[in-house]
Design brief:
- The chain is of the alpha+beta class.
- It folds into 2 domains: 68 residues, no CATH class; 108 residues, no CATH class.
- It is built from 3 helices and 8 strands, in the order αααββββββββ.
- The strands form 2 sheets. Strands 2-1-8-5 form a 4-stranded antiparallel beta sheet, with no helix packed on it. A 4-stranded antiparallel beta sheet has the order 3-4-7-6, with no helix packed on it.
- β3 and β4 form a beta hairpin.
- The termini are far apart.
Length: 199
Amino acid sequence: MIVPRFSTAIRTVLIVTFIFGLIAGGILLNLPAARAHIGSPARTTFVDGDPLTAAQLNDSFSHVDNVFSGGITDSMVSGSASLQHSKLATPALLPKAWALVGVAALCNGAAAVGTPCSVDVSSRISSVVAGGVTGQYNVNLAYTPTNANFGILATGRIAGVNCNAGFQQTAAPQLVVYCFTGTTGAATNTPFTVMVLDD
């Protein structure tokens, strides 16, 4: 077999080319580490065989620590997370319970006490029942308040009709809604909305 002879210059070019090929191959096989060294984010998706530097490990833990120490943003929270009301920054500024009552079927407050009313939509209100008097409705919450120092807002759904609420207590019914006409003050049955503000 005839072995070709190359000049010193050609051999040098071949050796340099071979070395650069090894370097390039190593970088391509180790892209995560390469990206970290050339300024890309240190939090890389690693695969088996990738080297893990102390800086990359520390950065990942620092990121987790920052997130769980007040750095959580809206985009990080799943729409199905079902966060508890008490976990919010200012829970007392947000409704803890509310209901829309009597739109689909008007509730007769003068029915026997405890007669269920039609609740169109609600959150954390277990039931609304007749109070035994026209325009009077007892509201049962789906949770037990810590004390009776919670706020209530009740509004009528029909022009000229007003509602208010009171008699807060921790035992059911936790509050009572009263509705009346705006001109004569006569009690009247009407659709209404009720909202509870609580810690």
